[in-house]
């Protein structure tokens, strides 16, 4: 049975579902920044090298939050600011983004340092597990004794 959410999609094809959920390069770059670069605030995303416009950044953060990929909460140090974090659903995108990195570094010239490429390609599973562990420690109600 189709859910209401799937009725809005062009098709139930898994590739289409991912593309319609993430939708564009900006959404992937925001997830990248949360996953790999530990950026968490609007201004940190805004100052990434790709130079996203403020209105597009606002829109994509809202879409990612509505899709359950990111969550936001007020910064306890500055209540005018929000902290964005990946949800479990967002963390589950780690293997997809790692494979995008592997593909790009294999077929195109990138700015990624060769040592990091080797670290990722040498043991993808360990790299992904480490990313997952670090991001899961940021989830509310998470208890990560080994993150001290």
Automatic annotation (TrEMBL):
Q: What domain of life does the native source organism fall in?
A: Bacteria
Identify one Pfam family in the record.
HxlR
Query: GO terms for molecular function, please?
Result: DNA binding
Task: Name the InterPro entries for this protein.
Answer: HTH_HxlR (IPR002577), WH-like_DNA-bd_sf (IPR036388), WH_DNA-bd_sf (IPR036390)
Instruction: Alphabetically list the UniProt keywords.
Output: DNA-binding, Transcription, Transcription regulation
Residue ranges annotated for the HTH hxlR-type domain, each copy included: 13-112
Q: What is this protein called?
A: Helix-turn-helix transcriptional regulator
């Amino acid at each position: 049975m189709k859910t209401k959410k799937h009725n809005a999609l062009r098709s139930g094809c898994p590739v289409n579902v991912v593309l319609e959920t993430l939708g564009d390069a900006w959404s992937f770059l925001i997830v990248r920044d949360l996953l790999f670069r530990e950026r968490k605030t609007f201004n940190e995303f805004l100052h990434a090298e790709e130079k996203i416009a403020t209105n597009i950044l606002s829109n994509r953060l809202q879409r990612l939050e509505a899709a359950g990929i990111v969550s936001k909460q007020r910064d306890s140090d500055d209540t005018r600011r929000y902290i964005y974090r990946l949800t479990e659903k967002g963390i589950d995108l780690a293997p997809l983004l790692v494979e995008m990195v592997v593909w790009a570094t294999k077929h195109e010239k990138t700015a990624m340092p060769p040592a990091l490429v080797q670290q990722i390609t040498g043991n993808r599973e360990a790299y992904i597990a480490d990313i997952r562990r670090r991001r899961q420690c940021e989830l509310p109600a998470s208890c990560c004794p080994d993150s001290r």
